[in-house]
């Protein structure tokens, strides 16, 4: 199964605590990249730099900022390839940084 | 259809539903399809067996019919070739197939409502109509809930297996919560049976028994099964001929099922040897304390108070404290119990039992006017006719 892990977070963590946190994230990322579970993924720029295209009845409108309806914004994502949801959950539970991780199965035709 | 046939059918369905679904899922790699075809096979069985009688090997009959349906559908969808590549030799990695299904249906990625509905339908083989009637929801919204949950199992990749040791305890807690809710829904509702052949409380007990066979060394699971058996042992004495609720103190104890009680105490002994007590074991111990007393007057109240104290340590809820106050009444007297009960009024003011307990205590202390006011509060807070009847009879006694 392929899943996308979406990490809640916005912008870089500050100061020393932040860089220690980044070390843990690097360790986590290395571990699962080496095991082959992580197929791809990136860290994102802060949501202040986001632009949203919204589709209404008329022409699409372009809005400055991230999705307005969600309280949390996505700070990064990983595409993973693991046997099942339990394996994805185990990975997400060990994520060392952000306050929440959403697990989304990837569409297959 | 006669009730005798209905009862046998209910048992066969319960026994075979999970097995057939699990084996078809393994064989054809499609849970959704397997589940639907199993249900269709049950419908055919219902028609065929009530006319021709039950075949000698009903499980094999169901398996054959369900499998034929799967193949028909695959052929019709012209996906047969593609799907055949998924067919693998049945491999059961140990344990009962049905328990693996139960872990999938009770996966924490599903909502509690979905877990309960799915377990009843997929593992215990209840029909959508039976489940809908038990939970007082419309059949169409229940069917939708089940369909959505099945889709999620398939598309989110929820596995069909006993969880790894690292996750087992957490996941088993999820399964036990579903069974506990299922049992109480059946046991506490005025409608004991969802149809002539099924009762949710008995289904939950059967599922717990299945789980114990595969996981015999999980103390809380043993405690849960013991608790169910103890509650079921008194099921025939809970209501009188006119459907009025009979309190534990007034029940005819000769009607209690002694065999079930001794099975339950054996289970509790096994759990105790493992030495990891928990809320289900403690609740079962409390129930067994009542079950083993020959008469109400013989109840071991000091032991009950100690058990409630331990239950409060792991499950600090005001309802447990109220139950403890009732036990304390018989140990330390009405005045002490009244103090405890009144301390719970702010937390439980909408709960009729806190008011009726207070009323009984006030009555014993001779404070009749206050008792009357408490009975009135209790009466205003419950709609259950059996309980209203009980409160009325108590109020009458206090007026005399």
In short:
Chain A has 109 residues and is of the alpha+beta class. Chain A has helices spanning 15-34, 85-93, and strands at residues 2-8, 38-43, 51-54, 61-64, 74-81, 101-105.
Descriptive account of the structure:
The complex is a heterodimer of chains A (109) and B (400). Helix content of chain A is 27%, strand content 31%. Chain A has 109 residues and is α+β, with helices and mostly antiparallel strands. In chain A, the strands form two sheets. In chain A, strands 2-5-1-6 form a four-stranded antiparallel beta sheet, with helices on one face. In chain A, a hairpin with a 6-residue loop joins strand 3 and strand 4. Chain B contains 20 helices and no strands. Among the domains of chain B are: 1-90, Rna Polymerase Sigma Factor, Chain: A (Orthogonal Bundle); 300-400, Alpha Horseshoe (Serine Threonine Protein Phosphatase 5, Tetratricopeptide repeat). The longest helix of chain B is centred in the N-terminal third of the chain and has 26 residues, at 3-28. Chain B is mainly alpha-helical and 400 residues long. The A-B interface holds A 1, 3, 83-86, 88-90, 103, 105 and B 107, 109, 155-159, 163-164, 167.
Key features of this structure:
heterodimer; A: 109 residues; alpha+beta; Alpha-Beta Plaits; four-stranded antiparallel beta sheet; two-stranded antiparallel sheet; 2 helices; 27% helix; B: 400 residues; mainly alpha; Rna Polymerase Sigma Factor, Chain: A; Serine Threonine Protein Phosphatase 5, Tetratricopeptide repeat; 0% strand
Biggest interface and which pair forms it?
A: A-B, 11 and 10 residues
* Main beta sheet strand tally, sense and closure of chain B: none
Number of helices, counting only DSSP H or I runs of 4 residues or more of chain A: 2
Low-confidence stretches of chain B: 83-94
Task: Please give the CATH class of the domain at 300-400 in chain B.
Answer: Mainly Alpha
Helix content class of chain B: over 70%
- CATH architecture classification of the domain at 300-400 in chain B: Alpha Horseshoe
Average pLDDT figure of chain B: 87
In one word, what is the shape of chain A? globular
* Structural class by sheet pairing and helices of chain A: alpha+beta
Stated plainly, the CATH topology of chain A is called Alpha-Beta Plaits
Rounded to an integer, what's the Rg of chain A over CA atoms? 16 Å
Mean pLDDT of chain A: 84
